[in-house]
Structures are given as C-alpha cells and as structure tokens.
Design goal:
The structure is a homodimer of 176-residue chains. Helix content of chain A is 16%, strand content 42%. With 176 residues, the first copy, chain A, is α+β, with helices and mostly antiparallel strands. In chain A, strands 3-2-6-9-10-5-4 form a seven-stranded antiparallel sheet, sandwiched between helices. A three-stranded antiparallel sheet of chain A has the order 1-11-12, with no helix packed on it. In chain A, a hairpin with a 2-residue loop joins β4 and β5. The longest helix of chain A is centred in the first third of the chain and has 8 residues. Chain A is globular, with a radius of gyration of 17 Å. The interface between A and B is large, with 77 and 77 residues.
C-alpha cells in the first residue's frame, strides 16, 4: 500500500500492517497521588540496558495518560497466556469500573508502589524519566528500578488481531 | 530483582526480564548515499497511526547506526517463521560480509529505495523523522510512507532467547 503523492499513508493500511507484527501484551499500571489506573498496551520496547530503560506508548486521548504523568511512575506487566482475559478488561471492552478491572487479577507491589500483576511473565517497576508527544500518542521513557519474573508459564502473543499462546516448554522452535 | 539502594538495577537482571517479553524479529535495512546495510532488531514499536509512525532502537556502538542516520531512511522488515536464519545472519553471528548477508534473502524495494524483504510478514518503508540518544541506544522515530504485507505465513516470535513459530492458520488461540 502506497501513500498518495504528497499525502500520507492511510492510517488503516498502517494498522493492518502493524497487525502482522506480533507483540507481547502488557497491562501498564500506576498508583499514587493521582490515583490508581491500568491500561492494556502492546507498544512496549526495550531501549537500553545501561541504565535499564524501556518505553511505552499510550494514547493521549486516554484518560489514563494524565494519571501516569501525574504519578510519575508505572509498572509494565507482561501477560502470561492464561491472563488473556485481562487484556480485554483493561482495554475497556467490558466497561467495568477500574476497581472491578483490578479485581479480575491478583496484585502485589514492588518499591515504587505501582500494582504488580501476580503471574505476569515479567513486571518492570519504573520511574517515568521523560515523555514525548508524537501525534496521537505519548511516548513514556521509563527507568526500570526493579523487575520480577515468573519463569513458568507461556507467553501471550497478539498477532493478526488474535491471541496466541507461546508455550515455553512444549513449543516447537521455528525450524531453521 | 531489586536495585541496590542509591544504585541502578543490574543490566543482566533487566535483560533476563526482557527475555520474558515476547517480540517479533525484524531486519532493519537502508540504502542510499552512505551505503547499504541491514541489522536484526526486536525493539520496534508502533507509536501513532496519525501520521503513521513507528520507532526502532539500535545500538549506538553498531557500525550500522551512522549509516541509517546518514541515509535518513530505513525499512522495517518483520520476519516470517521460515526466515529465522536471517535473524542470526543480520545479527552478525555468521560474520558474513554485508553482501553475503543480503544474498541470503530475496529483496525488492518500494518508493524510498531501502531493501524490502520478500516474504516478510510486513515491511514498512520509512523516512527517519527524529533521532533521540538514550544511554547505549538511538531511538529512531520513523514516518511510514508505504507498507507491504504478506498475509500467508506464520510469524517468528523471540521468547526466552529462543525462536517460536506462531502459525496464523493452524495455531491454537490462547484459551479464555
């Protein structure tokens, strides 16, 4: 798909192509003076391990966005395959209250106090270092202070707008 | 794993936790006045669809980094499961020359001229909009001008430092 001359590539064509890029699914949480919230995101990536830094992109139109900024901290909780129901709940599909959304999972916390999802494949307890507005989204650059991993369990992968289960133990490595 | 008081989380602990976050694998390519190059990356994410924008993180120590910057354009080619051998080749594991690396795949091009991998699940032909240095890595913010997708074929997923095959047609969606 090509952008028209002098124009921009169609947003739908871009989203369709991004659907062909598999991704982990994470619940991004925060708790602090501005309140507790959580939102589903797949736009998470590692930036550098020195100092340990990741980034997360969150829609500016989302009511969660201002809460993350005000609290200045967040936790990235990457879902295990058996936590796929939380993806829809924290994406707002069920229209549950925030308290009801959190009630659907089990939570603990690390040093910075953001909700840490029990059984996530990995949780990253972060301080927000810098924010950058790009079009419709905010890019949060986050310094990772503490991590927690859950070594059993399979990964939840989103691809072609469906969820898949990557079984760490039993999965077939790609042939090569 | 907790960072020591007043200190930083250990880089190795951070990398171990990031290994528990599944990711697509892409070959990032460019061609232009500064030459042709390609490198394997998993730190790719969608930023906003208006205007269509993605970002890629590439090590500053990599010799490819300056070539991307000088050419001002790049293409993100997300690998199909049957292209897993290209991941190692473009990560430099085989120590092949750049010409030999490209000879291991089939390539075309779109409007901006960066190498486009035939059979990739998706290719994003981009102009580099902005670069931001963060620790050891450069974050390239890229405006997507054109996309190409390959709708058959399975996705290559990297998880727990191994490759997995997410079969779009036959795969079992995660239960829920």
């Amino acid at each position: 798909v090509k952008s028209p001359v002098g124009g921009s590539l169609d947003s739908q064509a871009f989203r369709n192509a991004m659907a062909r890029v598999s991704a982990a699914v994470s619940i991004i949480t925060t708790d602090g003076p501005a309140g507790r919230t959580g939102v589903t995101a797949s736009a998470v990536c590692s930036v550098t391990d020195d100092p340990p830094t990741l980034l997360v992109c969150i829609n500016r139109a989302s009511r969660h966005n201002a809460i993350f900024k005000a609290n200045g901290r967040l936790c990235v909780n990457t879902l295990s395959a058996n936590q796929d129901h939380l993806s829809g709940i924290f994406a707002g599909l069920t229209k549950d209250s925030m308290d009801a959304r959190f009630a659907a999972g089990a939570w603990s916390e690390l040093a910075l106090g953001s909700p840490v999802l029990v059984g996530a494949t990995a949780s990253f307890d972060c301080e927000i270092n810098q924010v950058r507005e790009v079009g419709t989204h905010t890019v949060f650059f986050c310094r990772v202070h503490e991590v927690q991993t859950h070594m059993e369990g399979s990964a939840l992968v989103y691809f072609d707008r469906r969820y898949y289960n990557v079984r760490a133990a039993a999965a077939q490595p790609a042939g090569g």
